[in-house]
Amino acid sequence: MSGQDAPQGGGRPGAGGRGSRGGRPPGARTGAGRTGGGDRPRDDAADARRDAAGRQRGAARAQGRAGRTSAAPGQRARTGDVARTAAFDTLRAVEGSDAYANLVLPPMLRERGVSGRDAGFATELAYGTLRMRGRYDAVLAIASSRPLDQVDPPVLDVLRLGAHQLLGMRVPAHAAVAETVGLARDRVGAGAAQFVNAVLRRVSERTLDAWLDAIGTAADPHGTDAVARLAVVGSHPAWVVRALREALVGSGRDVDEVGALLDADNAPPRVTLVARPGLVDRDDLAAQAGPDAEPGTLTPTAVVLPGGDPAALPAVRDGAAGVQDEGSQLVTLALAAAPLDGPDARWLDLCAGPGGKAALLAALAADRGARLVATEVQPHRTRLVRQSLRAVPAHAVEDVRTADGREVGDLEPASYDRVLLDAPCTGLGALRRRPESRWRRTPEDLAQLTRLQRELLASALAAVRPGGVVAYVTCSPHQAETRLVVTDAVRAAARAGTQVEILDAGAVVAGIAPGWAATAPAGERREVQLWPHVHGTDAMHLSLLRRL
């Protein structure tokens, strides 16, 4: 399930992921023998164990005692200010409790009374450090007198925070070093603080460009391994860089776009709202959002915010609007616009949590006199779906169920006119939203996920009636999760006696987004692949399938 249907909370292509299982950069391993003082998108099993703060129950507790953005907050005389402390505690929760930063940090800031510039500083410091971890670990490996695998994880997190202030934020070098040393003294001890001071002073001696040259050369000394250089400079695991290069080529784009794609992954996404049809007009939503709000470029429902708290808007509080990436809106609108044969009265969202697409579908269904059934396998996510649907007219929502989507096709064969399958995936298209996810996913995840995707798509094709349409959607561009899953599912259906037609999704999208043709790749392709560096959206995939 994609990560863009929730509140949305940074440079150039890194040594970070090269040869590292799960994306942990070399030299950043955990284990014994350290000195100096005292790390997935949707995983259903893990989601079931998470608490409200995003921490995975039963996981090990966090260790530790008790391009340029964001200006520094006012400097404080005491050691370790509240913004840096919150960022540090977030990194420890991510590392030690398998938590998601976007679920941990906002409530932490509220509980500690951190707001305004300090809250913005803490957010950029935490998220930016997590995104650029691979790059900074490569820098620290050169600047440190010790191998990084001999540095305690809490101390390493302090160093990463300092590196981001020095190389990724508009914080004066003296303030970045002094305040981070104060944080170290407060959180990991005086001895570790001396080590942090020495390392960060060495980091501050070079510019960002000089460090990028240094770590790129260290990763690719002979100039023969472009992926290794891109991985370390762009702060992505090497296997992810390879997968993104293959996905670009597979979707008809130039492989040389990968650098721009990595840059887009490393930039904080803007907040995008959806004006749910029949519940709030887009112009009214934009007026609520203020004079700096802009209409989306791909859909008639999107409003883009420059910043601020979307939860403060009346339409968002009431459920008439919500936070939803414009790519997520586009694929949902495309399902509703896809041509079908026969009645158009009963729709299904097969994997509906947390409910952003379901709410948009239900609003569209209400306008047409159709009804939506939403299913979700995790009970707590089912509750989120119900909450998302609270503003939709009751007659448009037939049911919200906790159910295994793989079983729906057998239990309700040929029962639906339109089916949305937003499949659980690696989330490689939404790396800018969950900054820690690139370091958690591994190539080994693909086997389990693609098997689940095939089973879910088979169920969706069984649940839709002949003449009806299924939208297969992922927030990953990985070829194994997109085109290959669709091809295999169509072939499997044919072997079982069901014929499936792959519709021209690009033509459907062009009817929604008039400027689509200018961004579409050359050649005959019936699926749609969005890209953050081209469309400003998550890298959503859409295939439209009609059962014959």
From TrEMBL:
Spell out the Gly residues composition-biased ranges: 8-25
Chain residues that bind S-adenosyl-L-methionine: C351, A352, G353, P354, G355, G356, K357, E376, D404, D422
The reply on keyword Methyltransferase is yes
Q: Which GO terms describe its biological process?
A: regulation of DNA-templated transcription; RNA methylation
Bilayer-crossing regions: none
Bias (Basic and acidic residues) occurs at 37-54
What InterPro entries would the database entry show? MeTrfase_RsmB-F_NOP2_cat, MeTrfase_RsmB-F_NOP2_dom, NusB-like_sf, NusB_RsmB_TIM44, RCMT, SAM-dependent_MTases_sf
Disordered as annotated region, ranges: 1-81
The active site annotation covers C475
Q: Name one Pfam family in it.
A: Methyltr_RsmB-F
Show the ranges annotated as biased composition (Low complexity): 55-72
Q: Does the keyword S-adenosyl-L-methionine apply?
A: yes
Task: Provide any one GO MF term from the record.
Answer: RNA methyltransferase activity
EC number(s) in its UniProt entry? 2.1.1.176
Q: Which domain of life is it from?
A: Bacteria
Cite the entry's keywords alphabetically: Methyltransferase, RNA-binding, S-adenosyl-L-methionine, Transferase
Q: Which residues form the SAM-dependent MTase RsmB/NOP-type domain?
A: 247-548
State the family named in the UniProt similarity comment for this chain.
Belongs to the class I-like SAM-binding methyltransferase superfamily. RsmB/NOP family.
Q: PANTHER family under this entry?
A: NOP2 YEAST -RELATED NOL1/NOP2/FMU SUN DOMAIN-CONTAINING, RIBOSOMAL RNA SMALL SUBUNIT METHYLTRANSFERASE B-RELATED
The name of this protein is 16S rRNA (Cytosine967-C5)-methyltransferase
Biological source species: Cellulomonas oligotrophica
